[in-house]
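Worked Example 4.2. Read the sequence first, then its C-alpha coordinates.
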Amino acid sequence: MSASGGAAGIVLLYPDLLGTYGDSGNATILAQRLRWRGRPAEVVTVLAGDPVPASADFYVVGGGEDLPQSLAARQLGAVQGYGPLHRAVDAGAAVLAVCAGLQILGTSFVGPDGIRAEGLGLLDCASVQGPGQRAVGEMVVEPDPSLGMPVLTGYENHGGVTTLGNGARPAGRVRSGVGNGDGTDGAVSGRVIGTYLHGPVLARNPALADHVLSSVLGPLEPLDDRDSDALRVERLAAARGLASASAPSTPARGLLGRALRRG
Protein backbone atom coordinates (compact mmCIF):
# COMPACT_ATOMS: atom_id res chain seq x y z
CA MET A 1 0.00 0.00 0.00
CA SER A 2 1.30 3.47 -0.82
CA ALA A 3 0.96 4.76 2.73
CA SER A 4 4.30 3.03 3.33
CA GLY A 5 6.05 5.09 0.65
CA GLY A 6 5.40 3.63 -2.83
CA ALA A 7 3.18 4.90 -5.62
CA ALA A 8 -0.52 5.03 -4.81
CA GLY A 9 -2.35 2.22 -6.56
CA ILE A 10 -5.68 3.23 -8.14
CA VAL A 11 -7.76 0.44 -9.68
CA LEU A 12 -10.39 1.29 -12.27
CA LEU A 13 -12.81 -1.62 -12.23
CA TYR A 14 -14.50 -2.83 -15.42
CA PRO A 15 -14.77 0.38 -17.46
CA ASP A 16 -15.89 -1.83 -20.36
CA LEU A 17 -18.95 -2.78 -18.29
CA LEU A 18 -19.36 0.19 -15.97
CA GLY A 19 -18.22 3.31 -17.80
CA THR A 20 -21.40 5.36 -18.15
CA TYR A 21 -21.15 9.18 -18.27
CA GLY A 22 -17.38 9.25 -18.05
CA ASP A 23 -17.19 7.69 -14.58
CA SER A 24 -13.80 6.24 -15.53
CA GLY A 25 -12.50 9.80 -15.25
CA ASN A 26 -12.72 9.52 -11.47
CA ALA A 27 -9.57 7.38 -11.49
CA THR A 28 -7.79 10.00 -13.60
CA ILE A 29 -8.71 12.74 -11.15
CA LEU A 30 -7.47 10.78 -8.11
CA ALA A 31 -4.13 10.12 -9.79
CA GLN A 32 -3.65 13.65 -11.06
CA ARG A 33 -4.44 15.31 -7.74
CA LEU A 34 -1.70 13.21 -6.19
CA ARG A 35 0.75 14.04 -9.00
CA TRP A 36 0.04 17.75 -8.61
CA ARG A 37 1.26 17.29 -5.04
CA GLY A 38 4.43 15.56 -6.19
CA ARG A 39 3.19 12.14 -5.11
CA PRO A 40 3.48 9.17 -7.47
CA ALA A 41 0.31 7.38 -8.54
CA GLU A 42 -0.47 4.48 -10.84
CA VAL A 43 -3.85 3.71 -12.42
CA VAL A 44 -4.48 0.03 -13.16
CA THR A 45 -7.42 -0.69 -15.47
CA VAL A 46 -9.14 -4.01 -14.84
CA LEU A 47 -11.36 -5.19 -17.68
CA ALA A 48 -14.08 -7.81 -17.48
CA GLY A 49 -12.51 -11.22 -16.97
CA ASP A 50 -9.23 -9.84 -15.62
CA PRO A 51 -8.15 -10.67 -12.06
CA VAL A 52 -8.79 -7.90 -9.54
CA PRO A 53 -5.75 -6.98 -7.42
CA ALA A 54 -6.48 -6.89 -3.71
CA SER A 55 -3.49 -4.78 -2.68
CA ALA A 56 -4.26 -1.35 -4.18
CA ASP A 57 -5.12 1.80 -2.23
CA PHE A 58 -8.15 3.03 -4.17
CA TYR A 59 -10.86 1.39 -6.25
CA VAL A 60 -13.22 3.19 -8.62
CA VAL A 61 -16.48 1.61 -9.82
CA GLY A 62 -18.74 3.37 -12.32
CA GLY A 63 -22.28 3.10 -13.62
CA GLY A 64 -23.77 0.88 -16.30
CA GLU A 65 -26.87 -0.87 -17.62
CA ASP A 66 -28.59 -3.78 -15.89
CA LEU A 67 -26.84 -6.67 -17.66
CA PRO A 68 -23.27 -5.30 -17.33
CA GLN A 69 -24.07 -4.46 -13.71
CA SER A 70 -24.98 -8.07 -12.97
CA LEU A 71 -21.90 -9.37 -14.79
CA ALA A 72 -19.66 -7.02 -12.81
CA ALA A 73 -21.25 -8.08 -9.51
CA ARG A 74 -20.62 -11.74 -10.27
CA GLN A 75 -17.01 -11.14 -11.23
CA LEU A 76 -16.40 -9.15 -8.05
CA GLY A 77 -17.59 -12.06 -5.94
CA ALA A 78 -21.16 -11.12 -5.07
CA VAL A 79 -22.27 -14.73 -5.54
CA GLN A 80 -19.19 -16.40 -4.02
CA GLY A 81 -19.10 -14.05 -1.04
CA TYR A 82 -15.66 -12.79 0.01
CA GLY A 83 -13.72 -11.52 -3.00
CA PRO A 84 -10.68 -9.33 -3.77
CA LEU A 85 -12.54 -6.07 -3.17
CA HIS A 86 -13.57 -7.28 0.28
CA ARG A 87 -9.95 -8.13 1.04
CA ALA A 88 -8.79 -4.73 -0.18
CA VAL A 89 -11.31 -2.87 1.99
CA ASP A 90 -10.37 -4.98 5.01
CA ALA A 91 -6.73 -4.03 4.37
CA GLY A 92 -7.58 -0.30 4.42
CA ALA A 93 -8.37 0.59 0.80
CA ALA A 94 -10.97 3.20 -0.18
CA VAL A 95 -13.74 2.61 -2.73
CA LEU A 96 -15.76 5.14 -4.72
CA ALA A 97 -18.79 3.65 -6.46
CA VAL A 98 -21.24 5.50 -8.70
CA CYS A 99 -24.84 4.57 -9.59
CA ALA A 100 -24.76 0.89 -10.63
CA GLY A 101 -21.51 0.65 -8.68
CA LEU A 102 -23.31 1.87 -5.56
CA GLN A 103 -25.99 -0.77 -6.04
CA ILE A 104 -23.40 -3.53 -6.56
CA LEU A 105 -21.65 -2.62 -3.31
CA GLY A 106 -24.94 -2.92 -1.42
CA THR A 107 -26.55 -6.10 -0.15
CA SER A 108 -28.86 -6.54 -3.15
CA PHE A 109 -30.13 -4.95 -6.37
CA VAL A 110 -32.50 -5.88 -9.17
CA GLY A 111 -30.96 -7.78 -12.09
CA PRO A 112 -31.87 -7.51 -15.78
CA ASP A 113 -34.52 -10.21 -15.32
CA GLY A 114 -36.27 -8.18 -12.63
CA ILE A 115 -35.20 -10.63 -9.93
CA ARG A 116 -33.27 -9.72 -6.79
CA ALA A 117 -29.51 -10.18 -7.23
CA GLU A 118 -26.86 -10.43 -4.55
CA GLY A 119 -24.57 -7.47 -3.98
CA LEU A 120 -21.14 -7.41 -2.37
CA GLY A 121 -22.43 -6.28 1.02
CA LEU A 122 -19.71 -3.65 1.44
CA LEU A 123 -22.48 -1.09 2.02
CA ASP A 124 -25.56 -1.76 4.13
CA CYS A 125 -28.11 -0.77 1.50
CA ALA A 126 -30.51 -2.46 -0.90
CA SER A 127 -31.75 -1.19 -4.26
CA VAL A 128 -34.99 -1.94 -6.10
CA GLN A 129 -36.68 -0.56 -9.20
CA GLY A 130 -38.52 2.66 -8.50
CA PRO A 131 -42.27 2.92 -9.03
CA GLY A 132 -42.16 5.92 -11.36
CA GLN A 133 -40.08 7.47 -14.11
CA ARG A 134 -36.30 7.38 -14.15
CA ALA A 135 -34.48 10.05 -12.21
CA VAL A 136 -32.71 12.09 -14.87
CA GLY A 137 -31.03 15.47 -14.52
CA GLU A 138 -28.75 17.61 -12.43
CA MET A 139 -28.49 16.83 -8.73
CA VAL A 140 -27.23 18.93 -5.83
CA VAL A 141 -26.27 17.21 -2.57
CA GLU A 142 -25.50 18.65 0.86
CA PRO A 143 -22.79 16.26 2.13
CA ASP A 144 -22.91 14.55 5.48
CA PRO A 145 -21.19 16.98 7.90
CA SER A 146 -18.67 14.31 8.88
CA LEU A 147 -17.26 14.41 5.35
CA GLY A 148 -16.22 18.04 5.82
CA MET A 149 -16.71 19.29 2.27
CA PRO A 150 -18.82 21.81 0.35
CA VAL A 151 -22.03 21.11 -1.55
CA LEU A 152 -21.68 18.47 -4.27
CA THR A 153 -23.06 18.52 -7.81
CA GLY A 154 -23.52 15.85 -10.44
CA TYR A 155 -25.82 14.29 -12.98
CA GLU A 156 -28.12 11.37 -12.23
CA ASN A 157 -29.80 8.89 -14.58
CA HIS A 158 -31.24 5.82 -12.87
CA GLY A 159 -34.47 4.02 -12.13
CA GLY A 160 -33.52 2.63 -8.75
CA VAL A 161 -34.57 3.35 -5.20
CA THR A 162 -31.94 2.66 -2.53
CA THR A 163 -32.75 2.04 1.13
CA LEU A 164 -30.04 2.17 3.79
CA GLY A 165 -29.73 -0.14 6.77
CA ASN A 166 -28.25 0.67 10.15
CA GLY A 167 -24.71 -0.07 8.98
CA ALA A 168 -24.45 2.86 6.54
CA ARG A 169 -25.26 6.54 6.50
CA PRO A 170 -26.20 8.69 3.49
CA ALA A 171 -23.48 10.52 1.62
CA GLY A 172 -25.68 13.59 1.93
CA ARG A 173 -29.10 15.22 1.69
CA VAL A 174 -30.51 15.98 -1.74
CA ARG A 175 -31.16 19.66 -2.36
CA SER A 176 -32.19 19.17 -5.96
CA GLY A 177 -32.84 15.86 -7.74
CA VAL A 178 -33.82 12.39 -6.55
CA GLY A 179 -30.82 10.36 -5.35
CA ASN A 180 -31.84 7.38 -3.22
CA GLY A 181 -35.49 8.35 -3.46
CA ASP A 182 -35.99 9.39 0.17
CA GLY A 183 -34.31 12.80 0.17
CA THR A 184 -30.81 11.38 0.58
CA ASP A 185 -28.04 10.33 -1.80
CA GLY A 186 -25.73 7.38 -1.68
CA ALA A 187 -24.24 5.52 1.24
CA VAL A 188 -21.05 5.72 3.29
CA SER A 189 -19.40 3.13 5.50
CA GLY A 190 -15.83 3.73 6.59
CA ARG A 191 -13.69 4.30 3.47
CA VAL A 192 -16.42 3.05 1.12
CA ILE A 193 -18.51 5.75 -0.56
CA GLY A 194 -21.40 5.23 -2.98
CA THR A 195 -23.35 7.95 -4.79
CA TYR A 196 -25.71 8.47 -7.71
CA LEU A 197 -23.65 11.47 -8.86
CA HIS A 198 -22.13 11.16 -12.33
CA GLY A 199 -20.15 13.98 -13.88
CA PRO A 200 -17.60 12.44 -13.41
CA VAL A 201 -18.25 13.30 -9.78
CA LEU A 202 -14.60 13.88 -8.84
CA ALA A 203 -14.02 16.24 -11.76
CA ARG A 204 -16.99 18.27 -10.56
CA ASN A 205 -16.11 18.05 -6.87
CA PRO A 206 -12.37 18.16 -6.12
CA ALA A 207 -13.01 18.24 -2.37
CA LEU A 208 -14.61 14.81 -2.62
CA ALA A 209 -11.56 13.53 -4.49
CA ASP A 210 -9.30 14.78 -1.71
CA HIS A 211 -11.56 13.22 0.91
CA VAL A 212 -11.18 9.83 -0.77
CA LEU A 213 -7.41 10.28 -1.02
CA SER A 214 -6.91 11.49 2.55
CA SER A 215 -9.03 8.64 3.97
CA VAL A 216 -6.11 6.36 3.07
CA LEU A 217 -3.08 8.65 2.87
CA GLY A 218 -3.80 11.06 5.70
CA PRO A 219 -3.65 14.88 5.46
CA LEU A 220 -2.83 16.25 2.00
CA GLU A 221 -1.00 19.37 0.90
CA PRO A 222 -3.49 22.08 -0.20
CA LEU A 223 -3.96 22.84 -3.90
CA ASP A 224 -5.14 25.96 -5.66
CA ASP A 225 -8.54 24.72 -6.83
CA ARG A 226 -9.93 27.90 -8.35
CA ASP A 227 -9.88 26.28 -11.79
CA SER A 228 -10.70 22.75 -10.70
CA ASP A 229 -13.73 23.93 -8.71
CA ALA A 230 -15.15 26.02 -11.57
CA LEU A 231 -17.60 23.41 -12.81
CA ARG A 232 -19.04 22.79 -9.35
CA VAL A 233 -19.59 26.49 -8.81
CA GLU A 234 -21.18 26.89 -12.24
CA ARG A 235 -23.57 23.98 -11.70
CA LEU A 236 -24.59 25.31 -8.30
CA ALA A 237 -25.34 28.69 -9.84
CA ALA A 238 -27.40 27.00 -12.56
CA ALA A 239 -29.32 25.02 -9.96
CA ARG A 240 -30.18 28.24 -8.17
CA GLY A 241 -31.34 29.80 -11.43
CA LEU A 242 -28.54 32.37 -11.28
CA ALA A 243 -26.45 31.29 -14.25
CA SER A 244 -26.37 33.71 -17.14
CA ALA A 245 -27.52 32.31 -20.48
CA SER A 246 -24.53 33.95 -22.13
CA ALA A 247 -21.95 32.54 -19.71
CA PRO A 248 -19.70 29.89 -21.26
CA SER A 249 -20.05 26.36 -19.92
CA THR A 250 -17.07 24.34 -18.67
CA PRO A 251 -17.67 20.68 -19.60
CA ALA A 252 -16.34 17.95 -17.35
CA ARG A 253 -14.14 16.67 -20.18
CA GLY A 254 -12.41 20.06 -20.18
CA LEU A 255 -11.44 19.59 -16.56
CA LEU A 256 -10.18 16.09 -17.32
CA GLY A 257 -8.11 17.41 -20.21
CA ARG A 258 -6.73 20.18 -18.03
CA ALA A 259 -5.86 17.62 -15.36
CA LEU A 260 -3.82 15.65 -17.89
CA ARG A 261 -2.10 18.75 -19.34
CA ARG A 262 -1.26 20.34 -16.01
CA GLY A 263 0.64 17.36 -14.61
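Now turn to a second chain, presented in exactly the same format:
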Amino acid sequence: MKKIVSIVLALTLCIGACLSLTACGDKADFTVGICQLMEHESLDKATNGFIDALTETLEKEGKTVEFDTQVAGEANLCTTVINAFTSKKVDLIMANATPALLAAANATTTIPVLGTSVTDYNDTFSGNIPENVSGTSDAVPFDEQAQMMIDSLGLKKGDKVGVIYCTNESNSLIQYEAVKKLFEAKEIVVEAYTFSDTTELQAVVTNAANNSKAIYVPSDNTVADNDSVVGTICTEKNVPVFTSYGGAICYASLAIDYYELGYKTGEMAAEILLGNKEPKDFEIATLTPSVVYNDELCGKLGITVPEK
Protein backbone atom coordinates (compact mmCIF):
# COMPACT_ATOMS: atom_id res chain seq x y z
CA MET A 1 0.00 0.00 0.00
CA LYS A 2 2.82 2.40 0.87
CA LYS A 3 4.46 1.65 -2.48
CA ILE A 4 1.22 2.44 -4.31
CA VAL A 5 0.84 5.75 -2.45
CA SER A 6 4.46 6.65 -3.22
CA ILE A 7 3.98 5.94 -6.92
CA VAL A 8 0.78 8.04 -7.03
CA LEU A 9 2.51 10.95 -5.28
CA ALA A 10 5.49 10.75 -7.62
CA LEU A 11 3.22 10.78 -10.67
CA THR A 12 1.27 13.72 -9.27
CA LEU A 13 4.44 15.74 -8.73
CA CYS A 14 5.68 14.87 -12.20
CA ILE A 15 2.43 15.98 -13.83
CA GLY A 16 2.40 19.20 -11.81
CA ALA A 17 5.95 20.02 -12.83
CA CYS A 18 5.32 19.46 -16.53
CA LEU A 19 3.39 22.63 -17.40
CA SER A 20 5.16 23.07 -20.71
CA LEU A 21 4.94 21.90 -24.31
CA THR A 22 7.07 18.83 -23.64
CA ALA A 23 6.13 15.52 -22.13
CA CYS A 24 6.90 14.75 -18.51
CA GLY A 25 10.55 13.95 -18.10
CA ASP A 26 11.52 15.63 -21.38
CA LYS A 27 13.24 18.99 -21.62
CA ALA A 28 12.35 21.42 -24.36
CA ASP A 29 15.10 22.41 -26.77
CA PHE A 30 14.47 26.11 -26.03
CA THR A 31 12.89 28.20 -23.30
CA VAL A 32 11.41 31.59 -24.19
CA GLY A 33 10.22 34.21 -21.72
CA ILE A 34 7.36 36.47 -22.82
CA CYS A 35 6.76 39.71 -20.92
CA GLN A 36 3.47 41.33 -21.97
CA LEU A 37 2.79 44.76 -20.47
CA MET A 38 -0.95 44.23 -19.86
CA GLU A 39 -3.94 42.31 -21.12
CA HIS A 40 -5.86 43.85 -23.99
CA GLU A 41 -6.86 42.73 -27.46
CA SER A 42 -3.93 44.10 -29.47
CA LEU A 43 -1.19 42.85 -27.15
CA ASP A 44 -2.96 39.50 -26.68
CA LYS A 45 -3.07 39.03 -30.45
CA ALA A 46 0.64 39.85 -30.79
CA THR A 47 1.57 37.31 -28.11
CA ASN A 48 -0.60 34.62 -29.70
CA GLY A 49 0.88 35.28 -33.13
CA PHE A 50 4.40 35.06 -31.72
CA ILE A 51 3.72 31.73 -29.98
CA ASP A 52 2.06 30.24 -33.07
CA ALA A 53 4.83 31.25 -35.46
CA LEU A 54 7.70 30.15 -33.24
CA THR A 55 6.05 26.83 -32.36
CA GLU A 56 5.20 26.02 -35.99
CA THR A 57 8.62 26.98 -37.35
CA LEU A 58 10.55 25.02 -34.73
CA GLU A 59 8.33 21.95 -35.10
CA LYS A 60 9.27 21.82 -38.79
CA GLU A 61 12.88 21.57 -37.65
CA GLY A 62 12.08 18.87 -35.09
CA LYS A 63 12.61 21.23 -32.16
CA THR A 64 10.46 22.02 -29.14
CA VAL A 65 9.98 25.21 -27.16
CA GLU A 66 8.68 26.00 -23.69
CA PHE A 67 7.06 29.40 -23.10
CA ASP A 68 7.02 31.27 -19.82
CA THR A 69 4.35 33.91 -20.48
CA GLN A 70 3.89 36.65 -17.89
CA VAL A 71 1.61 39.72 -17.92
CA ALA A 72 3.24 42.47 -15.86
CA GLY A 73 0.06 44.50 -15.40
CA GLU A 74 1.88 47.82 -15.24
CA ALA A 75 5.15 49.29 -16.49
CA ASN A 76 7.14 49.23 -13.24
CA LEU A 77 6.51 45.48 -12.82
CA CYS A 78 8.11 44.59 -16.16
CA THR A 79 11.55 44.66 -14.51
CA THR A 80 10.47 42.03 -11.97
CA VAL A 81 9.23 39.74 -14.74
CA ILE A 82 12.36 40.22 -16.86
CA ASN A 83 14.69 39.62 -13.90
CA ALA A 84 12.99 36.28 -13.34
CA PHE A 85 13.69 35.38 -16.98
CA THR A 86 17.37 36.31 -16.74
CA SER A 87 17.75 34.30 -13.52
CA LYS A 88 16.13 31.35 -15.29
CA LYS A 89 18.57 31.90 -18.18
CA VAL A 90 15.94 31.68 -20.90
CA ASP A 91 17.18 31.37 -24.47
CA LEU A 92 15.24 34.41 -25.72
CA ILE A 93 12.99 37.15 -24.36
CA MET A 94 9.99 38.52 -26.21
CA ALA A 95 8.98 41.94 -24.89
CA ASN A 96 5.44 42.96 -25.81
CA ALA A 97 5.20 46.80 -25.57
CA THR A 98 7.77 49.53 -24.98
CA PRO A 99 8.09 49.30 -21.14
CA ALA A 100 8.72 45.56 -21.42
CA LEU A 101 11.35 46.13 -24.10
CA LEU A 102 13.17 48.74 -22.02
CA ALA A 103 13.17 46.45 -18.99
CA ALA A 104 14.61 43.59 -21.03
CA ALA A 105 17.30 45.72 -22.68
CA ASN A 106 18.35 47.10 -19.29
CA ALA A 107 18.51 43.63 -17.75
CA THR A 108 20.69 41.75 -20.24
CA THR A 109 23.18 42.28 -23.03
CA THR A 110 23.64 38.57 -23.77
CA ILE A 111 20.15 37.07 -24.04
CA PRO A 112 18.49 37.87 -27.41
CA VAL A 113 15.56 40.26 -26.99
CA LEU A 114 12.80 40.79 -29.53
CA GLY A 115 10.20 43.51 -29.09
CA THR A 116 6.75 43.79 -30.58
CA SER A 117 3.94 46.39 -30.31
CA VAL A 118 6.69 49.02 -30.02
CA THR A 119 6.29 52.24 -31.99
CA ASP A 120 9.81 53.68 -32.34
CA TYR A 121 12.95 51.74 -31.40
CA ASN A 122 15.31 54.58 -32.25
CA ASP A 123 13.49 56.99 -29.97
CA THR A 124 13.21 54.36 -27.23
CA PHE A 125 16.97 53.84 -27.23
CA SER A 126 17.99 57.38 -28.24
CA GLY A 127 19.31 56.13 -31.56
CA ASN A 128 21.48 53.36 -30.07
CA ILE A 129 19.60 50.08 -30.28
CA PRO A 130 21.56 47.40 -28.34
CA GLU A 131 23.08 44.62 -30.44
CA ASN A 132 21.01 41.96 -28.66
CA VAL A 133 17.75 43.78 -29.44
CA SER A 134 15.51 43.81 -32.52
CA GLY A 135 11.86 43.16 -33.29
CA THR A 136 8.76 44.53 -34.94
CA SER A 137 7.14 47.96 -34.82
CA ASP A 138 3.45 48.85 -34.81
CA ALA A 139 4.19 52.30 -36.28
CA VAL A 140 1.83 53.43 -39.03
CA PRO A 141 2.06 56.38 -41.45
CA PHE A 142 0.82 59.24 -39.26
CA ASP A 143 0.44 61.58 -42.23
CA GLU A 144 -1.95 59.11 -43.88
CA GLN A 145 -3.92 58.74 -40.65
CA ALA A 146 -4.30 62.51 -40.29
CA GLN A 147 -5.32 62.91 -43.92
CA MET A 148 -7.83 60.08 -43.60
CA MET A 149 -9.51 61.90 -40.70
CA ILE A 150 -9.49 65.22 -42.56
CA ASP A 151 -11.05 63.71 -45.67
CA SER A 152 -13.62 61.45 -44.01
CA LEU A 153 -14.80 64.05 -41.46
CA GLY A 154 -14.43 67.13 -43.64
CA LEU A 155 -12.16 68.79 -41.08
CA LYS A 156 -11.25 72.37 -41.91
CA LYS A 157 -9.30 75.33 -40.59
CA GLY A 158 -10.05 76.02 -36.94
CA ASP A 159 -11.65 72.64 -36.19
CA LYS A 160 -10.42 70.97 -33.00
CA VAL A 161 -9.02 67.44 -32.71
CA GLY A 162 -8.44 66.04 -29.24
CA VAL A 163 -5.71 63.45 -28.66
CA ILE A 164 -6.18 61.17 -25.64
CA TYR A 165 -3.21 59.30 -24.21
CA CYS A 166 -1.51 58.14 -21.01
CA THR A 167 1.54 60.15 -19.94
CA ASN A 168 3.23 56.96 -18.69
CA GLU A 169 3.63 55.67 -22.27
CA SER A 170 6.48 57.24 -24.21
CA ASN A 171 5.29 55.75 -27.51
CA SER A 172 2.04 57.70 -27.19
CA LEU A 173 3.87 61.00 -26.83
CA ILE A 174 5.78 60.24 -30.05
CA GLN A 175 2.52 59.70 -31.91
CA TYR A 176 0.86 62.75 -30.41
CA GLU A 177 3.71 65.02 -31.51
CA ALA A 178 3.64 63.51 -35.01
CA VAL A 179 -0.09 63.96 -35.64
CA LYS A 180 -0.10 67.39 -33.98
CA LYS A 181 2.47 68.62 -36.49
CA LEU A 182 0.51 67.18 -39.41
CA PHE A 183 -2.88 68.58 -38.38
CA GLU A 184 -1.47 72.00 -37.57
CA ALA A 185 0.06 72.16 -41.05
CA LYS A 186 -3.59 72.13 -42.23
CA GLU A 187 -4.48 74.81 -39.63
CA ILE A 188 -6.48 72.32 -37.57
CA VAL A 189 -6.20 72.84 -33.80
CA VAL A 190 -4.85 69.92 -31.79
CA GLU A 191 -5.05 69.58 -28.03
CA ALA A 192 -3.74 66.80 -25.78
CA TYR A 193 -6.01 65.32 -23.12
CA THR A 194 -3.75 63.26 -20.90
CA PHE A 195 -3.99 61.17 -17.76
CA SER A 196 -1.59 59.14 -15.62
CA ASP A 197 -4.10 56.98 -13.76
CA THR A 198 -7.16 55.23 -15.18
CA THR A 199 -9.33 56.77 -12.45
CA GLU A 200 -8.88 60.06 -14.32
CA LEU A 201 -9.90 58.68 -17.71
CA GLN A 202 -13.66 59.29 -17.60
CA ALA A 203 -13.25 62.96 -16.70
CA VAL A 204 -10.49 63.42 -19.30
CA VAL A 205 -12.55 61.82 -22.08
CA THR A 206 -15.63 63.85 -21.16
CA ASN A 207 -13.60 67.05 -21.33
CA ALA A 208 -12.09 66.03 -24.67
CA ALA A 209 -15.46 65.14 -26.18
CA ASN A 210 -16.99 68.42 -25.03
CA ASN A 211 -14.26 70.45 -26.71
CA SER A 212 -13.38 68.50 -29.87
CA LYS A 213 -14.93 67.81 -33.24
CA ALA A 214 -13.09 64.48 -33.36
CA ILE A 215 -10.86 62.35 -31.13
CA TYR A 216 -7.59 60.66 -32.12
CA VAL A 217 -6.21 57.82 -29.98
CA PRO A 218 -2.64 56.63 -30.62
CA SER A 219 -1.59 53.01 -30.03
CA ASP A 220 -1.71 53.65 -26.30
CA ASN A 221 -1.90 50.42 -24.27
CA THR A 222 -3.61 51.99 -21.27
CA VAL A 223 -6.33 53.60 -23.38
CA ALA A 224 -6.79 50.42 -25.39
CA ASP A 225 -7.26 48.46 -22.16
CA ASN A 226 -10.06 50.88 -21.20
CA ASP A 227 -11.30 52.07 -24.57
CA SER A 228 -14.93 51.17 -23.88
CA VAL A 229 -14.96 54.28 -21.66
CA VAL A 230 -13.80 56.40 -24.61
CA GLY A 231 -16.26 54.79 -27.00
CA THR A 232 -19.29 55.14 -24.75
CA ILE A 233 -18.74 58.80 -23.90
CA CYS A 234 -17.80 59.93 -27.39
CA THR A 235 -20.64 58.08 -29.13
CA GLU A 236 -23.18 59.60 -26.70
CA LYS A 237 -21.82 63.06 -27.57
CA ASN A 238 -21.73 62.26 -31.31
CA VAL A 239 -17.95 62.73 -31.47
CA PRO A 240 -16.14 60.32 -33.85
CA VAL A 241 -13.10 58.42 -32.57
CA PHE A 242 -10.17 57.41 -34.79
CA THR A 243 -7.72 54.94 -33.26
CA SER A 244 -4.26 54.00 -34.40
CA TYR A 245 -4.74 50.36 -33.37
CA GLY A 246 -8.25 49.61 -34.67
CA GLY A 247 -10.89 48.20 -32.35
CA ALA A 248 -14.65 48.50 -31.91
CA ILE A 249 -14.74 52.12 -30.69
CA CYS A 250 -13.36 53.73 -33.84
CA TYR A 251 -15.45 54.91 -36.76
CA ALA A 252 -12.38 54.24 -38.92
CA SER A 253 -8.74 53.27 -38.63
CA LEU A 254 -5.58 52.84 -40.62
CA ALA A 255 -4.05 50.07 -38.56
CA ILE A 256 -2.06 46.85 -38.63
CA ASP A 257 -3.02 43.30 -37.68
CA TYR A 258 -1.36 42.67 -34.31
CA TYR A 259 -1.57 38.89 -34.69
CA GLU A 260 0.46 39.18 -37.89
CA LEU A 261 2.88 41.54 -36.13
CA GLY A 262 3.47 38.96 -33.41
CA TYR A 263 3.70 36.20 -36.02
CA LYS A 264 6.50 38.08 -37.81
CA THR A 265 8.31 38.45 -34.48
CA GLY A 266 7.99 34.71 -33.90
CA GLU A 267 9.55 33.96 -37.27
CA MET A 268 12.49 36.19 -36.34
CA ALA A 269 12.81 34.38 -33.01
CA ALA A 270 13.01 31.01 -34.77
CA GLU A 271 15.89 32.21 -36.94
CA ILE A 272 17.77 33.34 -33.82
CA LEU A 273 17.14 30.18 -31.78
CA LEU A 274 18.14 27.94 -34.71
CA GLY A 275 21.43 29.83 -34.94
CA ASN A 276 20.81 31.25 -38.39
CA LYS A 277 20.83 34.90 -37.33
CA GLU A 278 21.46 37.26 -34.41
CA PRO A 279 19.20 40.15 -33.39
CA LYS A 280 21.63 42.67 -34.90
CA ASP A 281 21.14 40.99 -38.30
CA PHE A 282 17.49 42.07 -38.40
CA GLU A 283 16.18 45.49 -39.28
CA ILE A 284 13.14 46.57 -37.28
CA ALA A 285 10.19 45.13 -39.21
CA THR A 286 6.88 46.87 -39.90
CA LEU A 287 3.62 45.79 -41.54
CA THR A 288 1.48 47.50 -44.16
CA PRO A 289 -1.65 48.87 -42.47
CA SER A 290 -5.20 48.39 -43.74
CA VAL A 291 -8.02 50.93 -44.03
CA VAL A 292 -11.09 49.90 -42.03
CA TYR A 293 -14.44 51.66 -41.59
CA ASN A 294 -17.02 50.68 -38.97
CA ASP A 295 -20.22 50.87 -41.04
CA GLU A 296 -22.57 50.63 -38.05
CA LEU A 297 -20.79 53.33 -36.04
CA CYS A 298 -20.46 55.59 -39.08
CA GLY A 299 -24.22 55.28 -39.55
CA LYS A 300 -24.86 56.37 -35.95
CA LEU A 301 -22.51 59.32 -36.31
CA GLY A 302 -23.78 60.39 -39.73
CA ILE A 303 -20.43 59.73 -41.44
CA THR A 304 -20.42 58.73 -45.10
CA VAL A 305 -18.15 55.77 -45.79
CA PRO A 306 -16.19 56.31 -49.02
CA GLU A 307 -17.23 53.90 -51.77
CA LYS A 308 -13.63 52.94 -52.49
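Notes for the reader: The first helix runs from residue 2 to 17. Confidence is low (pLDDT under 50) at residues 1-25.
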